[in-house]
Amino acid sequence: MEIVPGLHSVRLLGARAYLVVEDEITLIDAGLQGSGPLLRRHVEGIGRTVGEVTRIVCTHGHPDHIGGVREIAAMTGAQVLMHEADVVRLRIGMREALRELRPSAFVAALTRGPEDAKPLDDGAVLPGLGGLEVVHTPGHTPGSVCLHVPAHRLLIVGDVLQVLRGQVALPSYVFTEDMALARRSIARLAELDIDTICFAHYPTLRHGGREALRALAERARSGSAATSKT
Ligand SMILES: [Zn+2]
Ligand SMILES: [Zn+2]
């Protein structure tokens, strides 16, 4: 499905990924392990080849976003980009995870990161759709990033936001490493002039993104924002 001209939503295993389709193709998130054939089907279905995928941007290091990254990088030859803080987080061993005793620590210890990732820094602008601006939004994971597309007033958020009872909401309570930091990141997102929000696990919010983010930031400040208990 095309969200705006040149931006496709693609269902991979475990999560929605996005494809920026221009002369070169950029993939945003790689689904669970085994997602390669689904990506290939989509790319070939629009008359392109997987060899034209030159870049894989990881919104964060959770297995439903990077599980497929090694196979897709091998299949396409694409360069993988991920924020350094999540590269570091994925180095946690089981012994340390047992000391931390939090679901996010076990998830990190059990997730295989990309073989080789180029750092994705706050403020960097990647090619595509007139410029994909990297916004570092730590909290859900230390290296979570969103991609802001000013030309389309659009934001791709990974798991930094979810949709609960029809409302844009804070990220998953269980799998978020630092909710106070996540709230601060959302306050920063609420400053952006956007209309459309693309999520990893929910349908796209076509309009009213800025108002939804401002309302959420306000609720988060007053401590009444809903968070998922599951
Ligand atoms: Zn996810
Ligand atoms: Zn996640």
What does this structure look like?
The chain is of the alpha/beta class. The chain has one domain: 4-Layer Sandwich (Metallo-beta-lactamase, Chain A). It is 29% helix and 23% strand. It is built from 8 helices and 14 strands. The strands form 3 sheets. A 7-stranded mixed β-sheet has the order 1-2-3-4-5-6-7. The protein has a 5-stranded mixed β-sheet with strand order 8-9-10-11-14, with no helix packed on it. A two-stranded antiparallel sheet has the order 12-13. Helix 5 packs antiparallel against helix 6 (103-110) and helix 7 packs antiparallel against helix 8 (209-221). It starts with a strand and ends in a 9-residue tail after the last helix. The mean pLDDT is 95. The structure holds zinc ion (2 copies). One zinc ion binds next to loops.
Report the principal-axis shape. Answer: globular
Let me know the CATH homologous superfamily: Ribonuclease Z/Hydroxyacylglutathione hydrolase-like
Question: Helix content range of the residues, please?
Answer: 25-40%
Rg: 17 Å
The oligomeric state is single chain
What CATH calls the topology is Metallo-beta-lactamase, Chain A
Secondary structural class: alpha/beta
Q: Which architecture does the CATH hierarchy give at level 2?
A: 4-Layer Sandwich
Mean pLDDT equals 95
Number of strands: 14
Query: Which kinds of small molecule does this entry bind, naming each only once?
Result: zinc ion
Q: What sequence of helices (H) and strands (E) makes up the elements?
A: EEEEHEHHEHHHEEEEEEEHEH
What is the tally of helical segments?
8
By CATH reckoning, the class would read Alpha Beta
Distance between the termini: 29 Å
What fraction of residues sit in β-strands?
A: 15-25%
Strand order of the largest sheet: 1-2-3-4-5-6-7
Number of domains: 1
Which residues form runs of ≥5 with pLDDT under 50?
none
